[in-house]
UniProtKB/TrEMBL annotation, chain A:
This is Molybdate transport system ATP-binding protein. Pfam families: ABC_tran. The keyword DNA-binding does not apply. It comes from the Bacteria. Residues 1-233 form the ABC transporter domain.
Amino acid sequence: MIELDLQLPRLFADGQGELRIQLSLESHSLTALYGASGAGKTTLLRLLAGLETPVVGRIVVDGDTWLDTSSKINVPVQQRSIGFVFQDSALFPNMTVRENLAYAAASPKDALIDELLQKIGLESLAYRKPDALSGGQRQRVALARALVRRPKVLLLDEPFASLDATTAQSLREVLGDLHQQFQTTTLLVTHSQEDIRQLADRKVEIERGRVKTDEDKAPEPTPMWGVITKLDRENGYLETDTMQIRLSASAPWPNDLKVGDEVSLSWKRRI
Amino acid sequence: MMNMDWAPIWLTFRLASITTVLLLLVGIPLAAWLSATKIKLKPLIEAIISMPLVLPPSVLGFYFLLAFSPNNALGQWLEKAFNLRLVFSFEGLVVASMIYSLPFMVHPIQAGLENLPPSWKEASFTLGKSRTTTLFRVLLPNSKPALLTGIVLSFAHTIGEFGLVLMIGGNLPGQTRVASIAIYDEVETLNYAAAHSYAALLLVISLVILVLVYRFNKRLTV
């Protein structure tokens, strides 16, 4: 669990104001922060990382206090267990892809380096310098580099912003897979509804330094089970002892589906 | 040219090399600190470092001569504590040259570091790396042209010193008689041939160094 309560005077587009944000983030969740440019989303990530310090504030991560201005605790950025992916990827040009990961890893021989290189699909480019990579490849490396330290919190500052739609989609899939595997509590700053729809458990809208809306993804519905009692392929109709399902006639049906089969129906809610 | 006294040339290059190496050791941390600090005194510190750019070398030389003189407190203390006399000695030339060439080392490195994307430094910090590790593993390796410019400018500036050396070092053969002093001395005694040998040699060597640097820098930046 991450608990934040932060206050910082800040210049907004329409003049001086104050960023004041209180949030509790469930462990292993992926929360999307969205809102207009200059609303304070990136500042929130930077405060959590320790790259900026609030005037008043408290940050507690899994019981460890990273910041408490009232008792003058301010754990330096280097000692906070974070991974930060910058919008410009911030890979080090003097190092190869593998060296970028090894620099971040606990040991240059950490097995996780090669595992992550494989997960992001860039094993073959491990000995290339970042200059030789595309924008999407660079962001994959940045993501892997941020995770190779096994951080408690992953902070992503618009990682898809400069990518074309296809590249962004493939990076989203990589991020989704890595999140599923590592279960790192993640804060994702984004402008894209697609990011929110595909990745987020929760979406928080920031406006002028305050939380404007905060919506949780509802818990996943329990799958329903039933035994098929009636099957009408032509009209796209299926009935079981527990439910009736009507699909469009063109919907793909498994060919071997027949009366008496057991089926389960599960679905995902979108936030 | 075959009969020329090579000692002033060797002394010049010895002085320039030692000064440059020591300046690197001092200049890198100073430039790194200046590129990152937000203290209010920064303009004052930058102004002090830049003073040799605007002051006549004889002014600096004059004050070094006063400060390092065995008749003054600092000079006396240096002699007592370290058995070191900085007036009319090679060591004195090194110290004076370091101060004189400090802006030529600090400015390019500071500018090089300030031009790097701030996210590189921040990314290194978020990966748990200290300021020192970040400086030596990330920032400096990506500022090679700036480092090279600092090294060459400091080296070349030290080779070209005259007024400062004359004030604090005088003209002691093998000790403080560097090439620029030797040229002046030979002209004074109307020995134009010897002066020309030193002058032409300095001219050619300086040109070669600069051409090599520009070629190398082009390779680094292209």
